[in-house]
Amino acid sequence: MEEFENKFSEIASLLGDKSRSAMLWCLLDGRAYTAMELSICANVSAQAASNHLKKLIDANIVQVEKQGRHRYYRYASSEVAQVIESMASLVSVGKKVKKTKKPEQSDITYARTCYDHLAGEVGVKITDALLANGIIKLFEKTYKVTSSGKSWFDSVGIDIDQIILQKRSFAHPCMDWSERRYHIAGAIGASLLTIMIEKDWIRKIKNSRGVVFTATGRAEVKKYLDLEI
């Protein structure tokens, strides 16, 4: 037990550092970054960034991939990204604002990517619609696809049988930091985001985690989920 407590304290200390937390927040857009890019994000020197990244790699929070002359850093797993995003839900919206009041709406609070899935107000609304339409059900902190839901996913171009084979979480609730409610994450969430981008339902905003729904996307979401975006 003592060994576990020591390791937990070590992880908490790593995540609590301001520079490292800034780098980890930057990585939530799902892309890989160089140490130089992350140093700019955290406003530290390249050497300091490399030292921080080494500690995160040793703790299996971040992994590095070498490509040509560059080294690219990303999360070690989608589960790590989920933890970082969920931590943001603990942040108060400010002393002058009641905790029940949502942050002022912006591109990133309305619709954004959370690592490899859709988040923000729209992400939560789509998850609610999936539940309301009986496409998925929440069972012991995990989303399960219903028999009718399997057909629904097939209709939008997502093969549930193939997703089940992936060596990762199938579908789980992810606490949305701006909505303070759950959106769907895991392999299902990632597949939904991917298919929406491929079909031009949504488009990513350059240099931002924000996304915008196209006219086609709004029409298709209305068609498939009876949801106004």
| Rounded Rg | 19 Å
**Low-confidence runs of at least 5 consecutive residues:** 93-103
Order of helices and strands: HHHHEEHHEEHEEHHEEHEEH
Task: Let me know the number of strands.
Answer: 10
Q: What is the count of distinct domains?
A: 2
Strand order of the largest sheet: 1-2
> Helical amount among residues, as a percent range?
40-55%
Shape: globular
Given helix and strand content, the structural type is alpha+beta
What is this structure, in a nutshell?
The protein has 229 residues and is of the alpha+beta class. It has eleven helices and ten strands.
Write up what this structure looks like:
With 229 residues, the protein is of the alpha+beta class. It has two domains: 2-76, Winged helix-like DNA-binding domain superfamily/Winged helix DNA-binding domain (Arc Repressor Mutant, subunit A); 83-225, no CATH class. Helices cover 48% and strands 17% of the residues. It contains eleven helices and ten strands. It has helices spanning 2-16, 18-26, 35-42, 46-58, 78-87, 107-110, 120-132, 147-155, 160-164, 186-198, 215-225; strands at 62-67, 70-75, 112-114, 117-119, 136-139, 142-145, 172-175, 182-185, 202-204, 211-213. The strands form five sheets. A two-stranded antiparallel ribbon has the order 1-2. Strands 3-4 form a two-stranded antiparallel sheet. Strands 5-6 form a two-stranded antiparallel ribbon. Strand 3 and strand 4 form a beta hairpin. The protein is globular, with a radius of gyration of 19 Å.
